[in-house]
Design a protein that fits this description.
single chain; two-stranded antiparallel sheet; 9 helices; 2 strands; transmembrane helix; transmembrane
């Protein structure tokens, strides 16, 4: 290799080292300028991870505590102190428990209290149960959801009659309930049920309901 070629190689290496040093200098300059910002980001990220882990741990502990208290309430249903603790830690679960007990006793007063529950499911069914037990037609007609539930109850009774006219009327009632109804999933299932076309001549032998074939399925 000639001296000229050696000089060119050395020159090329110097340029590479110069670029490397220039990059390192820029990086050092950037770090010095923004070191506190970078430090803040790192600390904030670590704090976020720590807080997330802590919140997950607290939620898990709360769930375990609620489950334990609820199981104790089920084992000792007459223990007022346990019920009070359940109400404090999980008011919506407490209302659901009270609704189940009220349903066993058909307790209209309990349903009336639960009709103000923060648990929307309990609230709706408690209002319906209270209106049914107290035979409050105005309440049933005033609330769309209660009116729809009342309609479903009527449909159930019509299906129980197991006749062509009853089934036809049941489907007419179901068709009046709007698609936006929260009960539409139940309605869709009911619409797929019908009566066998041939009603048996012997009235003492009941005809069973059969499920209609859904289009596109076998």
């Amino acid at each position: 290799m000639s001296i000229k070629e050696n000089l060119e190689q050395v020159k090329s290496e110097f340029k590479s080292d110069e670029k490397l040093l220039e990059g390192a200098f820029r990086l050092e300059k950037f770090f010095k300028r923004y070191k506190w910002v970078l430090l803040f980001i790192i600390v904030a990220f670590i704090a976020y991870l720590g807080d997330t882990k802590l919140q997950d741990y607290k939620r898990e502990q709360t769930r375990e505590r609620i489950t334990q208290i609820y199981n104790e309430v089920l084992e000792s249903p007459n223990n007022i102190a346990l019920q009070k603790r359940l109400k404090e830690v999980a008011p919506e679960l407490y209302d659901l428990y009270q609704f189940a007990r009220a349903s066993e006793r058909n307790d209209a007063n309990a349903f009336k209290k639960l009709s103000q529950s923060s648990n929307e499911i309990v609230k709706t069914f408690a209002q319906y149960s209270y209106a049914s037990l107290s035979q409050d037609k105005n309440l049933l007609e005033k609330s769309p959801i209660l009116k729809e539930m009342s309609a479903l109850q009527e449909v159930n009774l019509l299906y129980g009659e197991n006749s062509k006219d009853a089934i036809k009327k049941a489907h007419q009632i179901l068709s009046t309930i709007p698609l936006s109804s929260s009960l539409y999933a139940i309605i869709s299932v009911l619409k797929h049920y019908g009566i066998s076309e041939e009603i048996q001549q012997n009235p003492s032998k009941p005809t069973n309901l059969k499920k209609e074939t859904i289009q596109g399925t076998h």
